[in-house]
Amino acid sequence: MFLIITQGVALGIYTMGARRLPAAQATLLGSAEMPMGPLWVWLFFNEMPATETFAGGALVLAAILGTLPSSCGPDQLQRPLNREIR
Predict the structure, then answer these.
(1) pLDDT tens, position by position, 10-60
(2) Which of 17, 20, 9 is nearest to 77 (CA)?
(3) How many of the other CB atoms lie within 10 Å of CB of 35?
(4) Which of 5, 36, 55, 61 has the greatest number of C-beta atoms within 10 Å?
(5) Phi then psi for 22, rounded to 5 degrees?
């Protein structure tokens, strides 16, 4: 039950946000999930990942965060499509 609720809420929020971002940015933000996994395990379950895991995750997050400021401005955001379903 917990998995269904958390995954459903996360996917719903991601979908609402992805409507306002260009596809490349939404993909980059979605790829941030993988390097954050070991961090959450370390924080909540006190299981220490290898140093290489933290280094690789930091590298991926730096690449993601490095691309966002250059391509994310008020003029880059899009309005969601409001289409009637018939």
Answers:
(1) 888 888 888 888 887 888 888 888 888 888 888 888 999 899 998 998 898
(2) 20
(3) 19
(4) 61
(5) -65, 155
